[in-house]
Structures are given as C-alpha cells and as structure tokens.
Amino acid sequence: MDRDVDMDIDEQPSTSAPKASSSSAVASNPDPATPLNLDLEAYISSYTGRTAIDRLIRIVSVCPPIASEAFVLAVQKIQEGRDPTVYQALCNAYEGGIGEMPALDGKWVDETIKRNQAEKVKLEGELKTYSNNMIKESIRMGHRDLAEFYRSVGDYPAALKHWTKSREFCTTSQHVLDGCISILELLIEQRNYAHLPTYIFKAESALEGASSALNAASKDKERDTGSTAGSSKKAQANIPDIDVLRSKLDFANGLSQLSQGNYERAAYFFLRLSGLGDWFGKLVSQADIAIYGVICGLSSQSRSAFKAQVIENLPFSAFIEQEPYIREIVESYMSSNFKGVLELLSKHHTRHVLDIHLFPHIPTLLSLTRSRLVTLYFTPFSTVKLDRMAEAFGWSVEDTEEFVVGLIRSGGIKGRVDSQGKVLQVKGKDRGGGREEVFVNALRTGVEMKRMTGKLLYRMKLQQLDLVIKQPKNQNQERGDGRGGQGSQVVEVD
C-alpha cells in the first residue's frame, strides 16, 4: 500500500535526527558533556583576553569531565586581565564543588581594584579638562580612552556610552570609522547581535566617506603636479588596511545574519573573509571562520554555489587548512559521501557546541544539512529504494522512511513513499527528475553540432581543391555601399 503524502500539508519537517543505531552519524546528538576530539590547551591557545575567558566559562558549563581543567585555566586568564568580577560568572557556571577549585589571589584582587579606581579618576579628570578647553579632538580621545578602560574592566554599558559620545566630536570620516569598528568589536565581544546592523551601516558609510575624501585630496594633489594616473588607488592605499576593515564588516554582518537564522546570507559573508587583523585571537580564530562558513554553507547553499565559494575560493582555503576535519567534510560532500559528512559532523559535535557564537544554531543547522543531503541524493533519480538510501546515510530503513516522509510533508521532496515496497518515487509530472528533458536537449545539440561540422568540412574540402572564386578587387571597390561584403564565392561542383 502506498503512503501518499500531499504537498500542501502544512506541517513542519522533523528537526530531530532519525533514530538510527548508536554508531550512526545521525543518531541522537552526542552529549555536550562528553569531550570528543578536544585538546583544551590547543583550543584555548587560539584566543586572548575576554574571549578566551568566555569560551572557558562555556566549557566549564557544558563539559563536566574537563570543567576542572578549564576552571584553572580561566582563573589564570582572569588574573592576566583587569576584571575580577568575571570570577563570579565562572563560579556560577561550575557545577562541582567550588571549595576544591583555586580562588583568585586576594592581594591581586585588592591591587587591581585600587589600580582601576585610580585610572578611572585620572581619565575622568582628563576628560573634564579637555571639555573645559573645548578642543574637539582632545575630547574625542578622552571618551575613547574611557571607553577602552571600561571595556577592560567589564563595564560594557559604560564603554558603549563613551564610544557613542566620542562620535559627537569626530572631525573626519576616519575618526568615525575607527569608532564604529571599536563599537562593533565591543558588541561582538558582548554578543549583542541586535545592534550590529546599525553600526555596520554607519561604518560602511564612514568608509565610503573616508575613501571619497582621500580620493578628492589625491586628485587635487595630482592636478597640482600635472598627473592624474592612479589617484583612486593611491587614495585607498592611504586608508590603513582597507581590505581588513572590509573583512571586519563582513564578519560582523555574518554574525548578525547568523543570529537571525539567515544561514545562506551568513555563509555568503563568512566565505568572503580574507583577514581580520587584530580580531584574530581577540574575537575569533581562523579555524572558527572555516567552521562558520562551511557549516552554514552546507545547510543553505546549492552544490554549485558551495563549490564556487568554498572549493574555488583561495583566500578561504587558508582558513580550512587550520581545521583538518573541515577539509575532510568538504571533500566528503563534493564526492557525495553523505554518510561521511554526517559522521564527521557528529564526531566533532562537541567542538561546535562549545563555540559561543554558533552553539544556539547547531540543532537547526544539522537538521537543515540532513534535509539538504537527502534531497541532493534523491535529485538524480525517479525512484529510490529506501534500503539503498539507508545504507548511503547509515540509517535504518524505518528511520529513513520516517525522515523522508517528513521531507515530503514539508515540501523538501516532491514524491511519495511506497510503504510496502519501501520505495521513494517522484510524484506526478516530476517523474523522471527532468532527465527526459536533459536527454532531448543533448540529442538536439548533437544533431546541430553534426550539421555544423559537416558544413565546415565541406568548405575546407572546397578550399583544398581551389574551388573558391575570389571577386576582382575593382569590383569590390565599386560596391562601397557594403551590400557585397563577401570577398569570395564557393562554386559547388557535382
């Protein structure tokens, strides 16, 4: 008996993996509490500052087997900074006995608090003096210094307030651009994704303004010296690391789109990155860029788009080399080894759930990836036996049937399932998967190529036999109106 599933059924696709065997790559997601293929010291060595501490706190909260080791490393990182208050967040994340864990050095805490208070008073006094003198550049720098100070001590609202105030005293587009980049860095560190689009837009406008201003100044200078060549390129060269600035804006755009669930747009921005300058380590690692780009691309992009933006993208290849298993995932996907793709994603699941930016989206990304792989597997066929599909993905036949039915109900596959014969078939006019049209077009193209080739060979033979008659030169000159443009005639001889 056929199980016909109508395409107009309004039902959401299953977001859980098929209930395959424990060895299956799509079995229930591995417990984040079980550290798999994770070298903690090597992992955390890619980060510095507050980002390293936040990632260690994340490990402490979801990986109990290595929580103690991560706790110790976090305490060391905290004592390298200027924010003793973050220790409380670390303790709240740790589920074990706090008494057994190392505490902060009391002397260091007292000295740090005193030093922070003294520097705060000093910077506020300097800002007050600058404000009384009414020197805009000095006031801007005073707000900038206070913003950096508050960020270093963990007071993000105060830091954002002073960065915002500093924009009121900017005198050039370059100053506005620097301020927007610093605010974006602050928001990413704070994981405040909602405000990213606002400052991305302001930074892009400031970058365009700075380029235009330098371009105009360069043209004036070239006019005075009598040379105008290359003025635009020279103007852009005067903006420090313009490619890095654009990559930073792309990275912020990628995180913004990721937070909204727009995975295709997020992949587009992540795959455009070439270098982030000082943001590497401070906010993200090169391996993270490879993970973000490839996982978002697998879940949302077509095979051709993935090949163009990942395989043929040389700058992004440098990021893939930083994480070998990502290269294995890409190779498995391009060779249609879908079981290998799912097994690698499952094997390194812990690495993904530990990421402070990616972990909320992992279930959805994995679900979309499975659905896209199944759809891609079925596309070339008009009928597929479910047992062969189950073998290709490492699932049981029953779980494969359940997953495919969910895809049919959601519109991912236009087909129906024969429950008795365990066969998936294309439904209605789509039967054949478009292969008949492909064959017809191929045959038509072959006939046309054969006809054109015959004509070419015929003309070449006539030329070899010297049966091409050229018109006299004076006759060509008389036909100046262009109607007798051909300079030779072919005489056909039986």
Automatic annotation (TrEMBL):
Residues 13-31 have a biased composition (Low complexity). It comes from Marasmius crinis-equi. Residues 262-431 form the PCI domain. Keywords: Cytoplasm, Nucleus, Signalosome. Pfam families: PCI, RPN7. The keyword Acyltransferase does not apply. The keyword ATP-binding does not apply. Belongs to the CSN1 family. It is found in: Cytoplasm; Nucleus. Residues 1-32, 471-494 are annotated as: Disordered. This is PCI domain-containing protein. Coiled coil: none annotated. InterPro entries: PCI_dom, Rpn7/CSN1, Rpn7_N, WH_DNA-bd_sf. SUPFAM superfamilies: Winged helix' DNA-binding domain (SSF46785).
